[in-house]
Amino acid sequence: MKRTTTAFLGTSVLALVAAASLGTGSASAHPSPAGRGADRTVTLSAQLDELNGSGASGTATATVRNQNIQNIDVHAHGLTPDAPHAQHIHYGQEALNECPTLALDDNNDGRINTVEGIPAYGPVVVSLNTTGDTTPASFLDVTRFPVSDDGSYHYSRDNIAFTRVAGTGYTGGGGTAKQIADSIREGEGVLVIHGVDYNGNGIYDFEGAGASELDPNLPAEATDPAVCGVLKVDN
Ligand SMILES: [Cu+2]
To answer: Which residues of the chain are modeled with pLDDT < 50?
Structure first.
């Protein structure tokens, strides 16, 4: 502690000798007042940029402490109006933990579908829905995701726990809640909002881009990614 050195410079030689002889000269007891837990709380923020020509954009901020998202806020605009938008935190140990580019368009149809984006952003680890279960099991339950009001919404939710997730690329099965939370706190999570009305007819239908590769009963318009941003650590 530099402050200790400064204090000693201001004291008399006698005092220095006395301090040294008492063994207190080191002033080594400098407790970290905040404790170790404070090191494990980080704030993250993301700039959300369009994918698939959606024209949408936004921002997100999150506070993550240990294995819990204390709060997350998402502001988005330019989305398909008055339609539900699945949104998730994606992460994979072997993913790039970046947003995808058209280089990942394996079938050359000019779109990045949700599966094609996985090498970049990884699988779903948290469903950012409005009520109930937030695990990947809820990733396509569109009834519990925010609905854009004229293309915009402000989403906020508190206390979302990370969970063990299969398919995240860890050997021996799924990544643990701690492994995933540690990586998200290091800035490796990617926030993705889905839902692109390609043909601009105001609804998700099969005319725009056919069926979703995730569920043949859902239009690809409902599941293709619309915006993406890496949740980076704030400085
Ligand atoms: Cu997603």
So the answer is: 1-38
Reported as type and span, the H/E element at residue 209 is helix 206-209
Give the per-residue pLDDT at 173. Answer: 77
Distance 124 CA to ligand 1 centre (A): 6
Place of tokens 């698939």: 52
For residue 41, the CA-to-ligand 1 centroid distance in Å is 24
Ligand 1 centroid – CA 235 distance (Å):
26
- Give the torsion sign (CA, 21, 26, 28, 30): positive
Percent of the chain with pLDDT over 70: 83
**What's the 121 CA to ligand 1 centre distance in angstroms?**
9
CA atoms within 13 A on the CB side of 85: 33
Number of alpha carbons in the 13 Å side-chain half-sphere of residue 66: 5
Q: Distance, CA 172 to ligand 1 centroid (Å)?
A: 24
Query: What integer pLDDT is reported at residue 4 of this predicted model?
Result: 33
Q: What is the C-alpha to C-alpha distance for residues 212 and 220, in angstroms, rounded to an integer?
A: 4
Q: Which residues pair with 88 in a beta bridge?
A: 127, 192
Task: Identify the structural domains of the chain with CATH numbers, from first to last.
Answer: 1-30 (no CATH), 35-233 (2.60.40)
User: pLDDT at position 39, please?
Assistant: 57
CA of 125 to the centre of ligand 1 (A): 9
Distance CA 97, CA 119 (A): 8
**What is the per-residue pLDDT across 194-221, written as a single tens digit (0 to 9) for each?**
999 999 999 999 999 999 999 999 999 9
Expressed in angstroms and rounded, the spacing between residue 189 Cα and the centre of ligand 1 is: 11
